[in-house]
Specification:
One of its GO terms (biological process) is glutamine biosynthetic process. Residues 197-647 form the GS catalytic domain. This protein is of the alpha+beta class. The chain has three domains: 37-196, Ubiquitin-like (UB roll) (Roll), CATH 3.10.20; 203-612, Creatine Kinase, Chain A, domain 2 (2-Layer Sandwich); 627-755, Four Helix Bundle (Hemerythrin (Met), subunit A) (Up-down Bundle), CATH 1.20.120. The strands form five sheets. Strands 12, 13, 14, 15, 16, 17, 18, 21 and 22 form a nine-stranded mixed sheet that branches. Strands 3, 4, 5, 8, 9, 10 and 11 form a seven-stranded mixed sheet that branches. The protein has a two-stranded antiparallel sheet with strand order 1-2. It starts with a helix and ends with a helix.
């Protein structure tokens, strides 16, 4: 019956009609994507057309932090947003926010309202559609039902979602051809404490902007037309989203995938990723249709998706956007995940964002490409062709080096989870050691400055080091010269400089980028402040800083942060040993990483600039620990159920069939003819016995966890005691899968899950 279910599902895959989505056209001609980009977004351009000019100007001042929004402006924007949305089929609106659950949340409210008139005939009730300014500004979800880490009790239910004016409203499809107006929001408690991911991200962005503007003012005290005063600095972010797409019917037959997001049992097929033929290969037609439709929806939502391709593992893929301001990019990444989930469902596929859904093949990450930009659009991490004299670039560079050197353990905490622990440290993702890769040319520049040597002496045959690339002559007359960057990429580094940005590669595919970017922003802001303080000290009573002053401070920070720079293979055992001699922590588990949040060097920095209050930081710590423990407990109980109700009964039936077969063969042919069956019985019986014992131990261990009160001790206990039992149980199940008849095996196998898309 199990095999029959799997076969029927595979037949359905090939017999089901393909979903067809019409590409936008005008007069029968396909539109350029730029022509419908952002058509479902209530952007500032749309707002400018909907509002009187004075009210629009007031709104823009508020968005830029110039003043508080008054009631008239709020009511005007709300009215314009409602009309715009309802003209596009909207019947409801929702404050869309990011609680500490790892996903987004929304509560839909109808535009429909009732009004009444009183006349001689009595009260007349009639329906109207409305969205007031106060409804736009805030809503009230039940705060007690979201993670709060002890900041809120069950009886303290009041919380607020507050419109984030820096992120535009948009519409998404609803049921029956309708749509819903989404209002990006923050989520706070009754007392104003952050209960979400967005509030702290916005705080960190403001802190980083202020520190950066102060540093720029210090090194450019007399602005000119060519070098004007910078008033705002923002982080840019591009999130490369990796994921798996598998058949939804087969997925529905795997309770481990449905409940936990990963396979808790399963053997590798003979062919998986070892041939290296999937990476950048041709996409399966159903997958390409899914991703294309997702792109179509995202383009309408103003999400600038740029890239799509096959990833390393079978059924693994990637989508990546053009860089945007980090707060917007975070919203857009969460939208990408949401739309991909919805569209895949329509194509009878299931998207898996878990960092390690399949044991033995590559997991998925969310590579966060991070940089700094001024309000004039200048990239502060652009080294230009002469980085050795680009002191602005070097000062920001050494500040980032200092941030990662000082707060590397904090960054490790930001990317830690029960799911990402399966990926980090394998030969597919950076280890738990946070280091920075700069590349050969920048390394030479920093080494020369540190040693007070002339840059020219590094390369006698050229005048200076140029970060502008060289060319490759392919010796083929029909090809042009090939431009080459001066530095290769280091795909093993957790934090690598890639030309004009840093790539934070260790972030997990399932998690929101908000928390890791918040911690990175905060650490960099703190180090920029320290760079400014060092410059002021070096400046002394002089009217302005000299180049020598700047070089002196740059040299100080180069020496201070040298240990965080590593150019080699981060996967190697040699690096783990070397990192230990350098004093760099190798944090291997999430509980150990979470503890770093409360270490004074990290907690003092986060609370000093108001990114977190002390209560918010402690609550975050407890939420992360609790989620880690719950995630593993859910996995353990799911595995326990699968083994007890599916694997062991099939194993018993298989052994019974073997035993009956042995008896029948020996009755007819003699004892010597049952040797193959006896051999198979001897192989599988110990596996069954061991598996039964392991399940008994797992059941006992799960019960013991409830007797532990301290959240850290709970998390540490499940990591040290429950995870090993789960892994041992898996090995036994996978051993049985190798020998038990395919006709009997109850679960879709890896070869079916990975190759039937």
């Amino acid at each position: 019956m199990s095999q029959e279910n799997r076969i029927n599902r595979i037949i359905d895959v090939y017999n089901s009609p393909k979903r067809v989505v019409e590409f936008p056209k005008k007069n029968g001609t396909p539109l350029y994507t730029s022509e419908f980009f952002g058509e479902n977004v209530f952007s500032t351009t749309v707002i400018a057309k909907c509002l009187p000019k004075p009210i629009y100007q007031q709104f823009i001042k508020q968005v830029r932090g110039g003043q508080m929004m008054d009631k008239n402006t709020t009511d005007s924007v709300a009215h314009a947003a409602r009309i715009w949305a309802m003209d596009r089929g909207a019947t409801h609106f929702t404050h869309w926010f990011q609680p500490q659950t790892g996903s987004t949340a929304e509560k839909h409210d109808s535009f429909l309202s009732l009004n009444s008139n009183f006349s001689q005939n009595g009260e007349e009730i009639f329906a109207i559609d409305t969205l007031s300014g106060s409804q736009l500004l805030q809503s009230e979800p039940d705060a007690s039902s979201f993670p709060s880490g002890g900041m809120r009790s069950t009886f303290e239910a009041r919380g607020y979602t507050v419109w984030d004016t820096t992120s535009p409203m948009f519409i998404q499809p609803g049921p029956h051809g309708t749509s819903i107006l989404y209002i990006p929001s923050i989520f706070i408690s009754y007392n104003g404490e952050a209960l979400d991911e967005k509030t702290v991200l916005l705080r960190s962005s403001e802190s980083l902007s202020k520190a950066s503007v102060d540093l720029l003012k210090l090194i450019n005290p007399n602005p000119t037309d060519e070098l004007p005063r910078v008033t705002y600095v923002y982080t840019t972010l591009g999130t490369e989203q990796e994921f798996f797409l598998i058949d939804r019917g087969l997925y529905s037959l795997r309770p481990d995938l449905k409940i936990t997001g990963r396979t808790l049992v399963g053997r590798l097929p003979p062919k998986h990723q070892q041939m290296e033929d999937h990476y950048f290969g041709r996409m399966p037609s159903r997958v390409l249709s899914t991703i294309s439709e997702t792109e179509l929806e995202l383009i309408k939502l103003g999400v600038p998706i740029k890239t799509r391709h096959n990833e390393v593992a079978p059924s693994q893929f990637e989508m990546a956007p053009i860089f945007e301001e980090a707060t917007i990019a975070t919203d857009h990444n969460l939208l990408t995940m949401d739309v991909l989930h919805r569209v895949a469902h329509n194509h009878k596929l299931k998207v898996l964002f878990h960092e390690k859904p399949f044991k033995g093949i590559n997991g998925s990450g969310k590579h966060c490409n991070w940089s700094l930009s001024t309000n004039y659009g200048e990239n502060l991490l652009d080294p230009t062709s002469t980085p050795e004299t680009n002191y602005r670039f070097l000062l920001f560079l050494v500040a980032i080096l200092d941030a990662v050197h000082t707060h590397g353990s904090l960054l490790r905490a930001g990317i830690s989870s029960a799911s990402n622990d399966h990926r980090l440290g394998a030969n597919e993702a950076p280890p738990g050691i946070i280091s920075i890769f700069l590349g050969e040319q920048l390394t030479k520049v920093l080494d020369a400055i540190e040693e007070n040597r002339s840059i020219k002496s590094l390369e006698p045959h050229i005048e200076s080091i140029k970060v502008g690339g060289t060319v490759l002559d392919m010796k083929i007359s029909t090809l042009p010269e090939i431009s080459r960057d001066l530095t290769d990429r280091n795909r093993t580094s957790p934090f690598a400089f890639t030309g004009n940005k840093f790539e934070f590669r260790a972030v997990g595919s399932k998690q929101s980028p908000s928390f890791p970017v918040t911690l990175l922003n905060s650490a960099v802001a703190s180090s920029i402040q320290q760079v400014s303080e060092a410059l002021l000290k070096q400046k002394g009573d002089k009217p302005t800083l000299t180049d020598d002053d700047k070089l002196f401070v740059i040299r100080q920070f180069i020496k201070k942060t040298k240990n965080i720079r590593f150019e080699g293979d981060n996967y190697s055992e040699a690096w783990a040993k070397e990192a230990e001699t350098r004093g760099l922590p190798n944090i291997k588990t999430s509980p150990e990483a979470y503890a770093k949040l409360l270490e004074p060097i990290n907690s003092d920095m986060l609370t000093k600039d108001g990114i977190f209050s002390k209560s918010e930081l402690h609550s975050r710590y407890y939420i992360l620990l609790e989620k880690y423990t719950k995630d593993i407990l859910v996995e353990a109980r799911t595995l326990e159920s699968i083994i007890k109700t599916q694997i062991l009964p099939i194993a018993y039936e298989f052994r019974k069939l073997l035993a009956e077969g042995i008896k029948a063969i020996e009755n007819v042919c003699g004892e010597q003819h049952s040797t193959p069956e006896k051999k198979l019985l001897k192989i599988t019986t110990p596996l069954v016995i061991d598996l039964q014992n392991l399940i008994d131990s797992m059941t006992t261990t799960i019960k013991e966890i409830s007797t532990i009160d301290d959240p850290y001790n709970q998390a540490e206990y499940v990591e040290k005691n429950l995870l090993p039992l789960m892994e041992d149980s898996r090995l036994k199940v996978d051993g049985l899968e190798e020998f038990i008849s395919d006709k009997l095996w109850p679960l879709p196998k890896y070869n079916e899950l990975l190759f039937y898309t």
